[in-house]
Amino acid sequence: MTFPSLAAFIGLCAILALTPGPDSFLVLRYSLSNARSGLSAAFGSSLGSIFWAALVGIGLAALLEQSAEAYRIMKIVGGLYLIYLGVTAFIHSRRMQHGPLDGERTVKNSSIRSSFLAGLLSCMLNPKVGLFFLAIVPQFLPTGNASFGLTMLLGVIDFAVSMIYLGVLSFVATKAVLWLKKPSVTKAMERTSAGILATLGLGTAISANS
């Protein structure tokens, strides 16, 4: 791969990362709790790129492009998962309104694991990311030499670009919360991000049947 091609691919990855979507709002939502949870969600979301690169490398992701039914099912499942995340985030904000829960340290550790899994599943269940890899990655593979290794390398590059952007987003969101330091503001932001996630999920699920 030539340097101009590599630069072009990195630019496309940056555009994908900067486009507002479930991953960005998910990272913002977890960053309101603490920095580790936000970065964990960012890492999980970014790692999903390698998952899609692997599927493209072995040819399974082509099913999404060839089968409208498979694409529709994945959109519905992904939408329902986003609705679930939004509802649980709203419930969490209401519980925190009544003060810290018992076993706060355990909850924080659990939050880091759950935020990572939430980010990873959000990306893995997002067919638009899969279609991005199907449409873009083959254009940067040598003709007649679409190796699995090179496909995975492109996936790692997208992972790095996404992680940089989402990591910065998490850092800024965490600093903003620490600066505001008002429970009422934090609660409002948590509920807003929860509502956005649920709305995105509902819209995704409905669009799958249109």
What does the model show?
It is a multi-pass membrane protein. This is LysE family translocator. With 210 residues, the protein is an all-alpha fold. It has one domain (22-207). Helix content is 82%, strand content 0%. It contains nine helices and no strands. It has helices at 3-18, 22-31, 35-58, 62-66, 68-96, 104-124, 127-136, 148-180, 183-207. The radius of gyration is 18 Å and the shape is globular. It starts with a helix and ends with a helix. 40% of the residues are buried.
Helix count, DSSP H or I runs of 4 or more residues: 9
H-E string = HHHHHHHHH
DSSP strand tally: 0
Instruction: Name the shape in a single word.
Output: globular
The protein's oligomeric status is single chain
Strand content: under 5%
How many domains make up the coordinates?
Answer: 1
- Mean pLDDT figure: 77
- Approximate helicity band: over 70%
Structural class: mainly alpha
Task: Give Rg in angstroms.
Answer: 18 Å
Low-confidence segments, given as residue ranges, are 100-107
- For the report, how would you describe the main beta sheet? none
